[in-house]
Amino acid sequence: MEFLSLISPLFVALVLGGTLIGIIFGAIPGMTATMAVAVCLPLTYSLGLENGLALLLGLYVGGISGGLVPAILLGIPGTPSSITTTFDGHPMAQNGEGEKALRIGITASFVGGLVSLFILYLFAPALANFAIKFSYVEKFLIILFALTVMAALSSDMLMGIFSGFLGIFISLIGIYDISDGGNGEMRLVPESLAYWLDGGFSLLPVLIGLFGLAAILEQAEIGVPKGQTRDEVKIGGKSSFSFGIFKGQIVNLLRSSGIGTFVGILPGVGGSAASILAYSNAKTFSKHPEKFGKGEPSGIVASEAGNNGLTGGALVPLLSLGIPGDSTTALLIGAFTLQGIQVGPLFIGNNPDTWNAMIFAMLIANIGMFIMMYVAIRYFAMVVTIPKHILFPVILMMCVIGAYTINYGIMFDVWTLLIFGIFGWLAVKIGIEVAPFIIGFILGPAAEVYFVKSLESFGDVSIFFTKSWIAMLLWVLIVASVAGSIFLARNKKKLSEGA
Amino acid sequence: MGSLTKVTIDFETSHLIFPTLIAIVLGLLGLAIVIRRRHEIAGAGTFWRDTFARMDKLRFFGALGLTLIYFSAMVPVGSIWPNTGLGFLICSIPYVLLTGLLFMHDRPFRDVLPLVIVALVAPTLVWWLFTDLFFLTLP
């Protein structure tokens, strides 16, 4: 219980403050939990590891939860993970049951968050203990597996794989670091840029560009939608909410939370897949599937339990293997890097107090989110009316601060932000998948070290197939994920041709 | 068979092994994508013309242009008063204001006034926070 010494009033205030800011970000259409974490990351510079993580985890939980507000009231998902909440939440709001729908969503989010937290607490240390035994070969194959899973679950597998490898390629720009066992030689950099790129592109400006600037450029492209007036946001009070609504929903709640957590564990898949999978399962197992999409509370329960279930799940591979489960947890790697901590199989064992403090922060964030949103939902409903012409310029300015201060004042990092902001906007147009790209970018340098060191140690390529039963199992999983994706894509094509 | 899988890593050139391998994989994947999406690639001109036609050009290129000017001006302005972070502050105020005005659809005084206040307060607050509290030097 030594971690309790880390829990100060400031720690709790940061979790709750982060949760509040996260809810506000999530509630504004066009802004996401990822953007909230990206923008607030520079604030953690002077906070220390535990307090910094407290703020960021609060932002994460709040950001995912806040998305249900516009999804229900406006039919616009505040974050991509709330897309299925619109299906039943918005019809309920149109029917004058907005408040009831919101409270159903908030309660389901709370349960989803707690279930995933429980699984995280049980599962991550066990996985980390297992992963400690991995050699360079297995570590390399784990990264390869993460990339293929992500690519397999992308909308286009080939583009998903390409995006992941492109991320790796760009991460290799610069010096092959001696501290990683490299030879200190530069590669992939033109001589004129050698001064700026000897260490490659910094992670955080890349992330802030891809998730902050690119999102605002997308909004600018469509003309920055005017936003809603207070008169347009009607919360409604036609029928009141009671917890009795959840009678008969326990199975749906637990199943959806479990699905969300499982999807979170898969690297780079994201909240929208969690909520879609939970929603489609709820519909399949429902006695009244015809009611889904017309204002069925079970739909909101499934969607919100699913997307909040993701929060704990996505931290499992991050904290046990060093592989981020989604874009937002990829940003958390940045926070660890800032504090000089490397996440991976040794993290939990070497930092038990930080690990417990993180779990505690997630618990406070979930409870805080539930109380804040349940009590003040009418005020959060008004958040959707905050004008974007005020928010976006301030966010852009915060992006600049984040990029500039990451390496204590390098202007090239600000230009990196712009380069990757434009790249992020362009990527969506040409079909490059940002999630596999960013995971590839984060894991690329480690993949290189593991690959080269494996060959240096064993001098034989066959070692990747024969090192251990874990290596063989990983190859089976890699092939299965690719084959499964091809099978699913063919089925989908056949169905669309048959329709 | 065994000798076919044997490799010797030359430490001097070890920095090129992985990038070369990734480049080859990227090349092969790129080729597969080009072959599979050849029709889409052939119609890329139409796609970009449509995208450009639908785009709110003023806001998109305006935002990009203002951002470019903002980034370019920060260091030269900051070098007039070195190590004070004033380059950031002096450039951020007009940037927030002008970008906000650009993103607005109608500009009545009652909507512009809050923006002016935010444009003055937000950069000043951030500048104070980072220079006086966090001791991080801004441009």
From TrEMBL, chain A:
Domain of life the protein comes from: Bacteria
Record's keyword annotation contains Transmembrane helix: yes
Boundaries of every DUF112 domain copy: 13-439
Keyword annotations of the record: Membrane, Plasmid, Transmembrane, Transmembrane helix
Transmembrane segments: 12-41, 53-76, 104-128, 140-173, 193-217, 354-377, 389-406, 472-489
One Pfam family recorded for the sequence: TctA
Keyword Transcription: no
InterPro entries in UniProt: DUF112_TM (IPR002823)
Protein known as: Tripartite tricarboxylate transporter permease
The species this protein was found in: Qingshengfaniella alkalisoli
Lineage, broadest ranks: Bacteria, Pseudomonadati, Pseudomonadota, Alphaproteobacteria, Rhodobacterales
TrEMBL record, chain B:
Transmembrane regions: 16-37, 58-80, 86-105, 112-130
Keyword DNA damage included in the entry's annotation: no
Signal peptide: none
Superkingdom in the source lineage: Bacteria
Domain DUF1468: 17-139
Keywords noted in UniProt: Membrane, Plasmid, Transmembrane, Transmembrane helix
Record has Transmembrane as a keyword: yes
Record's protein name: Tripartite tricarboxylate transporter TctB family protein
Lineage: Bacteria, Pseudomonadati, Pseudomonadota, Alphaproteobacteria, Rhodobacterales
